[in-house]
């Protein structure tokens, strides 16, 4: 039962992250079409540093936590998959 709940939470977080990403980048596509493994910085999304900063601020506001400076690294911000996993851990604490 907990696994289903965890999967449901991850899906919810992923959807919210996709919606926020599209708001920040002003892309007009279905949130479900954003690939989990697409690079946030150097991929087709092509987010610049200002967009990443705005995205991080929106995530903090939406999920009610703050990134530590150490958390803002290429590993966490490499893709939606890694970001979803990070946010899930951050809000589960």
Major β-sheet annotation: none
- CATH H level, superfamily name: ACP-like
Which overall shape is indicated by the principal axes computed on the Cα atoms? globular
Q: Give the termini distance in whole angstroms.
A: 20 Å
CATH class designation: Mainly Alpha
Overall CATH architecture: Orthogonal Bundle
Mean pLDDT: 89
Class by SSE composition:
mainly alpha
Order of helices and strands: HHH
CATH fold name, please? Non-ribosomal Peptide Synthetase Peptidyl Carrier Protein, Chain A
User: Low-confidence stretches at least 5 residues in length (pLDDT < 50)?
Assistant: none
Q: Please tell me the total number of domains.
A: 1
Rg over CA atoms, rounded to whole Å, is 13 Å
- Quaternary structure state of the chains depicted: single chain
Amount of beta strand = under 5%
Give the structure's gist in a few sentences.
The protein is an all-alpha fold. It has 3 helices and no strands.
Q: What does it look like?
A:
- The longest helix has 24 residues, at 2-25.
- This protein has 93 residues and is mainly α.
- The protein is built from three helices and no strands.
- The chain has one domain: ACP-like (Non-ribosomal Peptide Synthetase Peptidyl Carrier Protein, Chain A, Orthogonal Bundle), CATH 1.10.1200.
- It has helices spanning 2-25, 49-63, 80-92.
């Amino acid at each position: 039962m907990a696994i289903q709940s965890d999967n449901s939470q991850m899906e919810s977080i992923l959807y919210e992250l996709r919606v926020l990403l599209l708001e920040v980048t002003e892309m007009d596509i279905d949130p479900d079409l954003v690939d989990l493994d697409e690079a946030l910085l150097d991929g087709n999304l092509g987010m610049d540093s200002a967009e990443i900063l705005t995205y991080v601020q929106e995530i903090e506001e939406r999920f009610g936590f703050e990134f530590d400076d150490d958390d803002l690294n290429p590993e966490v911000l490499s893709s939606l998959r890694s970001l979803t996993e990070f946010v899930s851990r951050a809000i589960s604490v």
